[in-house]
Amino acid sequence: MTILVAVEEFRIGGAQTFALRLAQALHEAGHRVYLYSMYWQYTEHDLVKRLAPDVELLEYQPSYRKIDTLVLRADDWLQRQGWSISLRAQQLQRHLAHLIEHKKIEVVSSNTFKCDHLLAQVLQKLPLVPLVVTMHGDYEQFLAFYRQGQHYVIPNYLHKLADAIARINGIAYLSEQNLEVIRPGVVAVSAGHVRVRRIYNGLEGRFSADADKYTRSQLNIEPDALVFGMVARGVPEKGWEPVIQAFQRLRRLSARPMNLVLVGASPFLNQLREAYRADEALRFLGFVDNPVDCIASFDVGILASSLKESLPNSIAEYLFCGKGVISTDVGEIRQMIRTDDGQEAGLLIDFPAQGLAEVEPLYQAMKRYAEEEHLLRSHQALAAQAFAKFEMSRCVHAYTQLYEDCAKSLSA
């Protein structure tokens, strides 16, 4: 098959990372694959080259880039004022329609709502090309923002959602919460024609040539130290500060050497680094191109998110590296850490009713691992079994089947 894998932009993020990994895996499985991004301005080419080195990237290339960037900013301003107007959308639609016909695309596989909606409009005139979307959590997040009238609300979101659903042929979802937007009564259009399947994101974990930079000796960590670590986007809601506070409390009350490794980059994390610079047990690594390189030095991987996560990449990466897990109980995380026989490779704490994750349950979970060596070793051993569901070969097979079934239904 000739497949277009599309996303809003190619910069670090769960949906973007998965789209790149899927595109490369589909290529390695023998398909002709192309990548598409709506915003050339945000493409992190090193990320694309690392995760999808053999897949051609197709982007809208305007004659005057500065003007296109100004138009993009104008679109963003208009939407934030509540105007459902895009000066740039028509150019993207024409460009996409040309690419799909010129490259003889047989299936479009999209990964973020804004891109899904754009492609749904384009494919109205190409009825035999199936549109398969992966719901990573943005659909229900936008719906929550719309209902609350808070944060960033997409103008006319329910109307755009209905337009997209009407043209979508297949949905790959990660968690039951993803399906809220297609339940009866949410939008004035039926999703009865859509093939809906749960497909877990695949992870082709590979250590890079930079892995030696993140060994315990390179990080100035004692060989016998208990090492907690966290990999996430650098936003407060991921729970960075509660994790630091829980760790500091544990360290004050324990004679065992221990460290906390924090992997992520943002102005917020720069502020935390400055605020906690006196703590010599903390290691702020900033952005790491290939997180598994540094996760290998952890004993326990943490994600204390208060966001409505679906299937966080970091949890799969912790499992791949054989680490015990501490996380808030949200989305599919409990299923992620569970083995086929029902054992769990980690400790989950309650999802916060409001605000950030609570320090006390994080501290208690970290304390258990610090005091119960047999529990930690057991969970580390179970991690490899729990990871089996994320083997990329399983993921590619499931997506290929969904693509083929959608194509057959359109040609019948």
How would you describe this protein?
This protein has 412 residues and is α/β, with parallel strands linked by helices. It is 42% helix and 15% strand. It is built from 15 helices and 13 strands. It has helices at 14-28, 45-51, 65-80, 89-102, 113-122, 138-148, 157-167, 240-253, 267-275, 292-295, 313-320, 333-336, 359-371, 373-387, 392-411, and strands at residues 2-7, 32-37, 56-59, 107-110, 131-135, 170-173, 195-198, 226-231, 258-263, 282-286, 300-303, 324-328, 346-349. The strands form 2 sheets. The protein has a 7-stranded parallel beta sheet, with helices on both faces. It has a 6-stranded parallel beta sheet with strand order 10-9-8-11-12-13, sandwiched between helices. α8 links the parallel β8 (226-231) and β9 (258-263). The longest helix is centred in the last third of the chain and has 20 residues, at 392-411. The mean pLDDT is 93.
